[in-house]
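User: Batch of two.

Assistant: Item 1 of 2:
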Amino acid sequence: MISENLHKIQSELPATVKLLAVSKFQPLEKLLEAYQCGQRRFGENRPQELALKAVQMPQDVEWHFIGHLQTNKLKLVLPYAALVESVDSLHLLESINDWGAVHDRVIPVLLEMHIAAEQSKQGFYEEEVLDILFQAGKYAHVRFCGLMGMASHTDDEEVIRADFTRIASYLDYLRDLFPDLEDFRELSIGMSGDWRIAIACGSTEVRIGSSIFGSRDNH
């Protein structure tokens, strides 16, 4: 089933769009099954779970952290993560930069934007992202790679499309404004329910879990 799901999704993805298999709460055997099908990019949202799986899975797996990250959990994530997609506060960004300085590492990150209607969603507003990138030079141990976002929780495709269009347009604006940030090109939008809309809006990575692995045990 995982093999069929992966091949079906991959067959629909343009060459410019990467697939992140969201493996949170999934048992190791399911990740290994996806790995055997050629999937190498996995997303986790719990620090302990990422740290545990990272040492159990093959070493060529590319781990992305996609959940809310507390600064006291950096040591569980940053040694393993190829990309931290969910940088949603200045405090977290500064803490990641400090960790990188201590460990002589440059940490690739996406800035998570608040584009949804719900106030419960985390992330930066446009002017906050702008302030950060104007001061990008002070974050010597962070590599800014783009933006991440989640659409409003709704079945209205026009609302979802508007959310995705807004963040995609903002990425284009920032790329024009900061041409020296050469790596600032990733747009991580789109999940199991709305990834096709996200691709139409310019996504470079879709984060898909249940459509690959089936429903999960949210323990």
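Item 2 of 2:
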Amino acid sequence: MYLPPQFEGDHAQAADLIRQHPFASLISVDASGLPFITHLPLHLEMAGDPDGPQAFTLLGHVARGNPHWRYLRDRPQAVVTFLGPHAYLSPKVYPDLARVPTWNYLAVHCTVQARLVEDAAAKDSLLKKLIGDHEPAYAEQWRGMENAYARKMLSGIVAFELLVMDLQCKLKLNQHRPEAFVTMQAIYENGNDADQDLGRWMKRIAKGSVNRLKG
């Protein structure tokens, strides 16, 4: 994606954004050469230094009837995108009138290498990680299912691991416009849920900038 240096986030920020907004777009190339997109939740696992190579792995699954798993099998390289909070920004935040509206947003794009997970026990373990992200209490109900039913449910999905080979994290919050940053933050902090989420990220970025200056 287009990523001016003033909006570039680090890997730790990318990990937080993925965990807070795990509903992703998985993008592959279909048999006709066009993008094929599946929207799905993914679980993030990390190993070692978050800034190190291939430190992120994303876990997920699709219905067996979804052809996307075949595209991952035949062409394992794919792209995953995560979109965080986003909101309109009025030019009224600036002290001068020679300004235009814009849209602020947070996003992570990952280039991944896919590996299908075929083993039933491994699929079950992967599912439990996803359940743990969203409804840990359901894990007990899943474990209590009859074996025949659990096997049927597992056979109806295809699970996969997506090893992140490269990623970009974009935090577009107009942080390069300090003359309007405080006004923008106040507007977002008093807005809807997405606005408030952006306000918290703005506070985090501002704090990080201050700490760098002190260092």
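Residues 69 and 158 are 7 Å apart (CA to CA).
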